[in-house]
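[retry 2/3] cholesterol 7-desaturase: previous attempt timed out, resubmitting with same input.
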Amino acid sequence: MELTEIGFDHIPTGPDRDRRISRAQATRRMGSKIPPPYPNGWFAVGESRELKIGGVSAVDAIGQNLCVYRGEDGIARCVDAYCPHLGANLAVGGNVCGNCIECPFHKWRFGENGACVSVPGVENAPKGVSIKQWPTVERDGAIWIWYDAENRPPMWNIEEVPELEHWGYRGRNEFIVSAHIQEIPENGADVAHLNAVHSPSLVSSLGEKYPLLYDLIGCHVWSASWTKGDDHTASMTLTHDYKIMKCHLCHIDVKVTQIGPGHVRLFMQSPVGPILVSQSVTPLAPSLQRVVHRMYSPTHNAPLAALLVKSEGAMVSIVGLRGERIGAGPGRHRGLGVSRDDSRPV
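[retry 2/3] cholesterol 7-desaturase: success.
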């Protein structure tokens, strides 16, 4: 669902409205106190299940042009996209040879550490010729790379989730959000907005116009507390009930962990079993983020997890149409873009 026009209602309709909206986004005044658009941390640059052995993917994110590939050993790697020889894009026509990436122009090969290991017609590869190799790990079904503005090595590691060894993947939602990356975790820490924005039922929004109908239609009731950690993490405990009359239904307890600027894990305990939602936030541009939610659960509650994928997509679309925190001034604009889900019930 395309929602990128949110926040730009002042632009009149016409055949070139999309182009004018894009121009308005590019020229929007950002304010004078904007934090760095690309903070240090781990960022998702692809889906593990989509990158097969020998596969190559072009990625433009965090202000970089990248080439992500999977070697014959099954390990995903990420390098700068452009060959240091004559600037060919390794992700466009490049080949995986063993665990090396081969340039499509002159067949120069770069090894696991980024160094040039082979040049056709030359007995020894030139010394000192290399391409940047980005620290890469695979967690929660995604390929993550470490970004640091000062090129320092990773300052923390992403721990594995033991449950995912026997839980199944149930689907994902992807949203393109017009916002600074800092606004995403700020929104999570804003616990007051839960009941203010996310209380109405998906079944009907009539309760907003006629509050007395809340008793019949029902509404979501939330409570939460947020705590900042001493390291790169923050945590939140969250409870949810769906209230109809005096009955509290569908009680869910959620433990949320923010891991750096681009990763969140939500462990949900529902009446029919647990669900893990792994969120990644990847800057595509200074004020444009790709937000992906990946759902995992045990087999017995797979249908619930698949339903969560679809219902979350519907909820985000509704919130976007309502203009949640849209047009809050320079540097505080938020809008939603493409929405996509690929739920898997079993």
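[retry 2/3] cholesterol 7-desaturase: The chain is about 15% helix and 40% strand.
[retry 2/3] clearing retry counter.
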